[in-house]
Amino acid sequence: MRHFGRITAAAAFALAAPFAAPASAEDITIGGLFPFSGPNAVYGDVLSSGAKLAVKHINADKMLSGELSIAYEDTQALPQPAVVAMQKLVSVMDVPFTLSSFTGVSKAIAPIGGRNEVVMVNGGGVGPDLAELGEYFWNVIPLANLEVRASVPYAVQEMGKSKFALIYVDDPLGASILAEIESVLEEVGGELVSEMSVAPSAQQFSGLAAKVRSSGADAVYIASYGAQQVQIAKQLRDNGVDAQMISYSAYGVPDAMSLPENEGAIFTAQAVQLDSEDPVTKRFVEDYRTEFGEDPAPYNVNYYNATMLFAILAQALEEEGKEITGANLLAKRKEMGSFDLVGGNVSFLDNGTLLFPIDVKVIEGGAAKTLATVEIK
Amino acid sequence: MLALQLTLTGLQAGALYALTAVGFSLIFGSTRVFHFAHGATFALAAYLFYAVEAAGYGFVPGLLASFAGAIAFGLAIDWFIYRPIQRDEGSFFTVFVASFGIGIVVQNLIGMIFGRSFVTITSPLSRSREILDGVYVAPLAGIAFVVALICLVALGLFLRTTFTGKGLRALSDDPELVRVFGLNPRYLSAAAFAIGSALVVPAAVFTSMSSGLNPAIGHHVMLISLAATIVGGIGSIPGTMIAAFIFGLAENLSLLWFEPQWSEAVVFAILFAAIIARPSGLMGKSAAR
Prior knowledge:
Chain A is an alpha/beta fold. Helix content of chain A is about 45%, strand content about 20%. Chain B is mostly helical.
């Protein structure tokens, strides 16, 4: 009877197997941890569009033995859902590589990735401590300390603004920007006259505007992200704050650009020459415009580069007959040293961070215009 | 001057909170349905106004669309979600979970239809003017305050003087007695949902012009409405209104002493203090007799 059961089960399996989902062993999946719901959902589409274009290019060029795809997971830009999503990617989907975004999210998933030897590449979070999350955590974006070091001296020395108010979100990113601004202002002769932290979920800032006005600040640095950063800007202007608004790369999203109250605001972003003749950049820019009908923003570049970086490393591993694992990807990155990505030939610092020059941009007529490019050493 | 400025800002916030909280209080007090999707009604009303206004049809059509959408949504939830659950003797908790789910579904639908970005209606009414040295007030703040007072006084008169209003008050006291007197609780329940949903519209419209919208905006509205309903006394419209103004003022005046990140915590500290000191709320009826 026991034999009959086994035979029946085996027969059922044999019959069912051909009709099961086509499980191609050669197909390769990597993870994508982005916010697709909640107040920061706007970043989900912005961050994933560059990665989607990279997948299209990689598969069109047949860089890998199988089709590459990205398993997207919704983090809501919050650490707790991100940890659940990362566990799924690591334990269920067994990915060797994942894209990450947001400082809090990245810090939450880093121990899981490190323990399981999964490479995590961040192209959106800018908290300076993202450079210290272990060798499996890489950054393809200049971190906020570098951005502050570009924008604050520019505002003090070129725009004559010396009294700063800082509005920062109460999370690791905000805390790190506070520390960096205090330090940079001291160096360049400015003064932090007011600092105000806001809860990540806060949406009412008219009272805060009153405090900014009473502080006498002539510049306000907004260190938030998502819908909140735009709400802060609008409510500051609506409530009589006419100080120069300054922010960082999170401002490079369409909501911030299109808000009339943001006219004249300055922000920083990594410098990318979109009109470069370098073939990788040219192809990316042309195809991005065709695919999405607009110029790519730095975030689009970052996640294109992050995904392309995986393909370059995985291709090299496959050519050597090596398995695509996190450990092998890490070893190959160290071995190869530099990569042809959008923006030119780039190399990683020892802490796994790519170094780019930083643009100081101003919002004019709903678009960003570069005021200065700062070389970061 | 900062204290005066924060008081004025607090009154503006309180007026908006009062309009949303009173709607929730009316529904909860009359029907005992924990209408968590009230926040979704707010978001829907705000986005409908935004869509019509941004499409160039103007303020009045936007306002009408917002009223129509909010009332239709409130009635639809009452008829198609809550009543079948209650008919099947679903518990208070089942209704709450259903309502919570609707809130999430609506948030995601708004994100799918209108996008997940921040949107706002640019209006000169939201730009502040200096009325005293260092004191700025936007015309919208005054309008919001006056509209809130008109709506709340009108609601008070409606509940006290009209047959349906008296029925709603009776429904909150004793639904069985309402049946004995030949009144239709279903009709009264629908009236509560229609009026409660309509009350969020002015606040939703003002919010779309002042602080702007994102699909998740309903959550904050719901939290404040819930807290104001409990602190004011469940079923007490004047109590809820007073609590909403207390929250608006506390949230803003707390900036004199605390970091802005604690302003929401101040609201909930008041909530806890009120629950401990006066469990039935500022103007609620004591359960212990």
